Amino acid sequence: MLGLPAQITVALFDLDGVLTTTATVHSEAWRRAFDAFLVARAADGGAPGEDLRPFADRDYLDHVDGRPRLDGVRGFLASRSIVVDDAAVEAIAEAKNTEFLATLARDGVTAYPGSVRYLNAAREAGLRIAVVTSSKNGAAVLEAAGLTSFVEHRVDGNTIVDEQLRGKPAPDSYLRGAELMGVAPTEAAVFEDAISGVQAGAAGHFGYVVGIDRVGGPQAENMATAGADVVVTDLDALLSH
């Protein structure tokens, strides 16, 4: 009834964009932080070969989405041939987090209704649930969205730093989630809205990888190419599979 293979006993959910609408908040926070940096860089004259165009939606999807904060900064800057020191990378990351937390405090968090329906169905069916997110704000987002009670274990950006795990698209955080739940990767399903997260699920040889396409366009095809076993536009679509 959950649209998963019979051997799956554990669900490993990404958070932002899968369970909650906060992916759009992250995207906007990144845009504000990067655009402020790019404008200042252009005012200072930049360096030869640098691309200082404003941050775009495609930049978020290709270089930032799903990745740990510092990895996202470095990935985007590399795509624009911009070289900075570690202090500048950390300053951009901190500016983004400040923007995100301000929006969170002002507007709160909304869970996707389809995701809540799926979580309830999963719990009723006995599927065990963990969250695996690159965000360091995972606990706050889960609590604000009223989803904490569904989650048995959480691997987040703090775990990644504290345990020196490689961020997505490496499978480390998902493998850690499976370990905490006491199952082999083949017994767990990964649920992701980011290409980097789908790649992580495929690289970890998980039993099933579900892509959630919230953006349209070529995203579903890209997810399938990255290793998704199925792609849906909302989690509750799996209930009819």
Automatic annotation (TrEMBL):
Its EC number is 5.4.2.6. It catalyses: beta-D-glucose 1-phosphate = beta-D-glucose 6-phosphate. Pfam families: Hydrolase. GO terms for molecular function: hydrolase activity. InterPro entries: B-phosphoglucomutase_hydrolase, Beta-PGM-like, HAD-like_sf, HAD-SF_hydro_IA, HAD_sf, PGP-like_dom2. Keywords: Carbohydrate metabolism, Hydrolase, Isomerase, Magnesium, Metal-binding, Phosphoprotein. Its cofactor is Mg(2+). Belongs to the HAD-like hydrolase superfamily. CbbY/CbbZ/Gph/YieH family. This is Beta-phosphoglucomutase. It comes from Gordonia alkaliphila.
